[in-house]
Amino acid sequence: MKRILTGTFLSFFIAIAAFPLAAQDRQGGDDDAMLPEIDPQDIEIRSEFNARFPGLRRQPILGFEPASRVYRIDSDRMPYIESREEVVADLPISDMARPDPPPYARLHYSPDINAFGRVGGGSYTSPEANFWGVTRLNDKSYIGGDLDFSSSEGHLDGQASSFRFLTANGEFATKLDEQTRLGFDLGLQNSFNHMYGVETSLDIPDSPRKEHGGFDIGANLERMKNGVAGWQMQAHMRYYDARVLAGDLSGETDEGVYNVSLAKRWAGASPMETITAKLGGRMGDYSNSMVADQWMTGQAGVEYQRLFNYELHVTVDASIYYGSDAFEDKVYFGPSATVELPLFEGATLIGNIGARPYVRSAEQLHTTNRFLNSGNNFRHTYKMYGSGELKLTYSEVGTLSGGIRYEDISNHPVFERNAVATNPDQLLFYEVRYADATNVRLYAAATHQVVPEKFWLSGEAYAQLPELRDGGRIPFSEKLGLNSGFGLKLFDGMTIEGWADYRGIRENDQGQDMEDYLLVGGQLDVSITDKIGVYGKVVNLLDQQYQQWEGYVERPLQIYGGLTFKL
């Protein structure tokens, strides 16, 4: 009996002593675990101390000995961090894939079209046509073109006043690789207009006529490493011919203009900093019934651009030119500088100063004044200028701007009517004379959307003082002027546009006043389908009789109508 009691008591004591050990050996996954599972290597004790556990009645922590030596560890040591490769190695493959981006939604401000055309006619049997189009041949090339045509049988009684103006251009461009672009352009001009009648003792027909036109061809090659650094090379040739069929005043001018340029641009060390080296030349070869000669302009220079403090944008150009013509050979300095400084939110101050030489070609002069006779010389004009402008953006739908500009021009081309040598009172057609001139111009402009994307207004008013150095005003230059327009979108598919241009009193080459005039017009466009529409247009709504160039009365009120199409 004593043995049985002794065995029972011993078994009970062993069970009680083994229970704490079993509790510590339980896995941490049990929800009712009394103590967490602790890895002895995770235990870190800093500094030296003696741990005392009075009244401790359980198994001590494994791996811990109060009397053992503890080494001091730097508290500023770098903690252990897994490398990126070690982190990624433990990730599932599904977590390493890049997530799909959100779908791209293009912003459409206007319908996507590849071509637009307008064909119609107006008063005095005046057909007109306008066209532009572009299409992609593949993902690297495109081809495009435009056409502008207007014609009329004339509006004057007892005097021929018919005309035709035709200009057509084409362009092709392709990417040779990701950084290189090659482009070609081709143009054609074919026009005629009747000159005004003159009363003189010379043998001149009642309907003198002028025919003018030509062609141009060019190529452009550029290679850009990025949006900033790279180089560009251009070559261009234009041929122009103007013939005046007017009896004793008949003559012909033919001209070839050749232009070659090369530019290389580098990125600077600072943000928004670029340096561009430029080299180029322009040459004209002309002949007429009076003279045959050449002119040439060569340029070499460096342009520097930089954005300072992410606010002040500065552009400085240091160029030197060499000019040669029938009158002189000369070296010209052509520096320029442009500064754009934001004053505060919505206000920007723009300053510009510089100088440059140029030659207005025969094509440019005859296009400006279609009553210009042949037999003119060409020489270099040298312009020095300076301007200041303040631009205010007072809201998302409106801007205001205003400024002043001063120009000092040497050898400025001036149009004046030629006269019979034996009788200065018998005025003939126009010719070009070169004279020194100055001009001071004050201007103010505004644009505003009364109803965003529905009703908008724009306008610019200016006052200027164009004077010749030898006295008097520059002929056919007004002191006051206004250009304005508006657009109104009544609803989808119907748009009304209008304009009003004013030219103040001018002086002819004889110092006599020419009347001012105001040209008002409007146009209505209506879409019948997504591809086809109709339009109506009114020109010179006030039916004013005015002369842009003395001797020729321009057309009165005209009404146009026709079709429009989109592809």
From TrEMBL:
Asked whether the keyword Amino-acid biosynthesis is assigned, the reply is no
Grouped into one coarse class, the protein's main location is: membrane
Recorded hits in Gene3D superfamilies, A to Z, give:
TonB-dependent receptor, beta-barrel domain (2.40.170.20)
SUPFAM superfamilies in UniProt: Porins
Keyword Signal tagged: yes
* Record localization: Cell outer membrane
Ordered alphabetically, the record's keywords are: Cell outer membrane, Membrane, Signal
* GO CC annotation, single: cell outer membrane
For this UniProt entry, which residues form the secretion signal?
1-22
Name listed for the protein in its UniProt record = TonB dependent receptor
What species does this protein belong to?
Fodinibius roseus
